[in-house]
Amino acid sequence: MKGEQKPRRSRGLVTTIVVLALLGGGAYGYVRTTQRPAAKAKVATAAPVPVTLGTVDQGPFALLLNGLGTVQAYNTVQVRTRVDGEIQQVAFREGQNVRKGDVLVQIDPRPYQATLDQAKAKKDQDTANLNNAKADLVRYTGLGAYASRQQTETQTALVAQLTAQVASDQASIDNATTQLGYATVRAPIDGVTGFRQVDIGNIVTAAGQSPIVTITQVEPIFVVFTAPEDQLPAIGGALRTGDVPVSAWTTDGLTKLADGKLALFNNQVDTATGTIRLKAVFQNQNHALWPGLSVSTKMRVGTVAAATTVPDDAVQHGPDGLFAFVIDESGHAHQRALKAGRSDSGRTQVLAGDLKPGDRVITAGQYKVQDGSLVADPHAAHTAQAETAAPGRSARAEP
């Protein structure tokens, strides 16, 4: 009986393996049959490419010329002494706003005061001699025939000599008064003081080369910048019709510093660079512009009443030139060639191209998009949902 049990066990094991094989094959076929259409459906319904959209607009557009410039002070004065002497007082602070006539430095005035007093005393002496000579001349003249002609002429010459001497004394007084005034150094212009170059107790001389302080006038102030020579006719035409607005920005173009107007353009073109130098004036009451500062400039030379514009980021560079992706009603992107003009405030003028006001264009995410791709703006959808939900929240908030 034991010998008969082994064949039965072997046959049972073989039967089990066959059944499992059949079940596995059926399951595999079922999975392939049921999953293949689902995979095809997944490929057929690929997700749209996420992008950011903007719109094509039409309206007034400023024609701007961008440039780079340097701020220059309206006036710069190096204050020096005009007399020699010891500094007794420094009456200003570094970086202080000063007005014309404000006292900056006081130099020892005593030597110049003494010279002035001496000149006044000399004039008084000569005036007394002149008065005496005039009295003698009157007496000689009154004697008539009793006075010789020589005495009269000599006395007349003496009166003239003393009169000239008194005039010379007055000139000496004026000169001494001027020198005494120079002992008080005053601000020649309105402006801002720089670093102080002298201290109290120092001896300064009129022949010295080092200034006491430098004053720069910053209200108003200039910006010198350049423009291409081919824009000279447009600039000249705009300047003839009235003020040409110019704005100064930081060099990265993100922050506006001041608004001004074009003052003039240079009388010749730089042939080496093909540019023309221009100068704009700014009131600069907030001192946003400082001498030597590098700025970028935007000069408006005209305005287009009805210009077609697109966001700057919508303009792309391709092998055939500039283009933009326009979205149709079904959400598919189509590449449209265009010719771009100037740019202002984040928008570019479209000079030529199949773009119409109201068209939607891609402003971000173009690197994933091809002609005919299905796209969607998740930010716009989220905004629409929020606007739709907002009235419901308001209605629920009402009593």
TrEMBL record:
Annotated Multidrug resistance protein MdtA-like beta-barrel domain residues: 220-303
Chain positions covered by the region annotation Disordered: 373-399
InterPro entries named among the record's database cross-references: MdtA-like_b-barrel, MdtA-like_BSH, MdtA-like_C, MdtA-like_HH, RND_pump_MFP
UniProt keyword annotations, A-Z: Cell inner membrane, Cell membrane, Membrane, Transport
Annotated ranges, domain Multidrug resistance protein MdtA-like alpha-helical hairpin: 115-183
GO annotations of cellular component type: efflux pump complex
Subcellular location(s) per record: Cell membrane
MF terms (GO), sorted A to Z: efflux transmembrane transporter activity
UniProt feature, compositional bias: Low complexity: 381-390
Pfam families cross-referenced by the UniProt entry: Beta-barrel_RND, BSH_RND, HH_MFP_RND, RND-MFP_C
Domain (Multidrug resistance protein MdtA-like C-terminal permuted SH3): residue spans on this chain: 307-365
Family note: Belongs to the membrane fusion protein (MFP) (TC 8.A.1) family.
Protein name: Multidrug efflux system membrane fusion protein
Lineage per the UniProt record: Bacteria, Pseudomonadati, Pseudomonadota, Alphaproteobacteria, Hyphomicrobiales
